[in-house]
Design a protein that fits this description.
The chain has helices at about 15-25, 30-35, 110-120, 145-155, 225-235, and strands spanning about 1-5, 15, 40, 45, 50-55, 60, 85, 90-95, 125, 135-140, 160-165, 175-180, 180-185, 190-195, 200-210, 215-220, 255-265, 270-275. It is of the alpha+beta class. The strands form four sheets. Strands 7, 8, 9, 10, 11, 12, 15, 16, 17 and 18 form a ten-stranded mixed β-sheet that branches. It has a four-stranded antiparallel β-sheet with strand order 1-6-3-4. The protein has a two-stranded antiparallel ribbon with strand order 2-5. Keywords: Isomerase.
């Protein structure tokens, strides 16, 4: 595999070594292979690790198949991949509710399988949404970008906004929840607010409300499993249709949607901001609230 890219105009001049290790956060193994195999070129010439690169320089990287772990995913239906954004390295897909991000076995079809079929090539999961949650999911199209974008995600530099319809309403229009989250000792499928749990921060904004329900937007500073579901439930405002944290709700689906994802592209430096539409969430003031609730 060969990748070529032009460094963005706003990038600072730096050594090749600094570019790979710090600007791109490339793993040590990949950097070592590029160096040992002499598979890195600047403007068509074999690169020295200490030479300086800057705006508009062309960087070319060559990887052999054995440089990466082999991934086999059974292709699904390409028509089920609702593509929101795509470039040479990344693809963002609008996941429907009721579909897993990736299967637990080779035979189980999930969103990853459908994206693989659309690309006719492997798709690598960067993050996941719960099966019941719809909205934007980011995949890597190759194993060169996968650890780079993965580290950005771990550092909480990929920002996501979620929309939820919850039971009741908050007394404040805006609030931030600082509540640690840990696994429920009595139900391994659930998570709970726990002082011994991992740090979790959720920002909540009320967009609209009625006598029974509210539309809220949640943004995350952390990415704990079930974070929004647990935090909202802990405040007495569980998400409508949540089978775990609001099991007596009669709504047929969980009313949680990952409506927007934004980040700085690690290679191009471009600001990426992608909205994920939803037919379920429709309202006169917000495109993400169902009328009649």
């Amino acid at each position: 595999m060969k990748f070529s890219l032009i460094l963005p105009k706003k990038i600072k001049k730096q050594s090749v070594s600094h570019l790979l290790e710090y600007t791109w956060s490339m793993p040590r193994k990949q950097r070592h292979l590029l160096r040992m195999k002499k598979h890195l070129f600047i403007n068509g010439l074999l690169a020295s690790w200490e030479e300086t690169v800057g705006p508009n320089d062309k960087v070319t990287l060559v990887f052999d198949q054995e440089d990466f772990d082999f991934l086999t995913v059974e292709p699904g239906d390409p028509n089920l991949a609702d593509i929101l954004y795509e470039d040479e390295h990344l693809i963002i897909v609008n996941k429907p509710e009721g579909m897993k991000t990736h299967g637990n076995s080779p035979q189980e079809l999930a969103l990853q399988n459908h994206v693989t079929a659309y690309l006719n090539a492997p798709a690598f999961v960067v993050h996941r949404l719960d099966k019941e949650t719809s909205g934007a999911v980011l995949f890597a199209k190759n194993q060169f970008i996968l650890p780079i974008i993965g580290k950005i995600f771990e550092e909480n530099k990929i920002h996501r906004s979620y929309y939820a319809v919850v039971q009741g309403y908050f007394s404040e229009k805006n609030l931030t929840l600082h509540k640690n989250i840990g696994r429920d000792r009595h139900n391994r499928k659930k998570y709970v607010v726990s002082k011994r749990g991992k740090k979790a921060i959720t920002h909540i904004e009320t967009l609209d409300k009625s006598k029974k329900y509210s539309l809220v937007r949640c943004t995350l500073d952390t990415g704990r499993t079930h974070q929004i579901r647990v935090h909202l439930s802990s405040e007495g405002h569980p998400i409508i249709g949540d089978p775990l944290y609001h099991p007596y709700s009669t709504k047929s689906r969980m009313m949680l949607h990952a409506g927007k994802i934004s980040f700085v592209h690690p290679l191009s430096g471009e600001d990426i901001e992608i909205a994920a539409p939803s037919d379920t969430f429709i309202y006169k003031k917000s495109p993400l609230f169902k009328s009649g609730l």
